[in-house]
Amino acid sequence: MIRRRLLQAIPVIILATFFVFGLLKLVPGDIAVTLAGDNATDARIAEIRAMYGLDQPFLVQYGGWLLKAVQGDLSKSLLSGEAVLTSIARCLPNTMLIVVLALLLAMAIGIPLGILAASRPGGWIDGFVMSVASLGVAIPNFWLAMLLVAWLSLSMGWFPATGSVPFTENPWESLRHAILPAVALASGGVAEVARQLRSSLVEVLASQQVRTLHAKGVSPASILWKHGLKNVSVNLLTVISLLANRILAATVVVEAVFAIPGMGGLIVNAAIQRDFPVVQGVVFVMVLIVVSINLLTDVLYSVLDPRIS
User: Fold this and answer.
1) Could you give the residue ranges of the DSSP H alpha helices within the chain?
2) Which of 53, 191, 274, 296 fits 136 for a cystine, CB–CB 3.0-4.6 Å?
3) At the fourth CATH level, which superfamily is domain 93-199+235-261?
């Protein structure tokens, strides 16, 4: 199964990187002119194009870049000259810390809320949880991020407002800097996990199988934990997998609010400055992360339900 999934991931990687590579070529202007500087001659501009391969056909440029990328060479920044892989290695841990923390918060809060709502469908707890879930879905991440900065950082002084600290240097300070961005990202995730889990559990608990267990005298708690959650585990895993990918994408906006030097800031600045190798490298790594998440999800599917292969 893993081999088949890996083979299926190859076209995804090629199509995603090819699409981004093509879009970058549609951006107006000439990066060679920017690199050559003011008052550069046509000969100097042509030399810059040849130096960076910008004078080659599109497919030749893409093929050469992809061949190097799969070998671990993501080229160098056109502006700073720094290896793209070095820039990514510096920024990726900041992003992944926020993503992982946000995902853990979404599960730690959303799963209990979903179970509470499903255990008393139609009751006041169910209504309260669904109201909170609807509110969480409706609130934009960037607006909540700004609200958290104004309240918990600037007014209360409990958390840093901007920046980040490498986890290897000071784990506690690193977590303090990551908590507010993670909360902003997790708000919608909590709502989504709670709603989907509640819906799946209510359906399972109303099934004929569960009614039979009730008739046999099995306790409601045992039915919920041993039968209900087991039957919805695959659906819950799907929700968590999709949520992880969405949180990863949403970090671009939240990192900008908190001025975190992560992958979002890296790709935005590179796009503004038309530093194409950096944009392409970040997209390539992001696609690999998404493919890895999907592959891990497929493996866990077979663990939770051996019938899935």
Assistant:
1) 2-25, 31-36, 42-51, 58-69, 84-119, 124-138, 141-148, 171-205, 208-215, 220-222, 229-257, 263-272, 276-304
2) 191
3) MetI-like (1.10.3720.10)
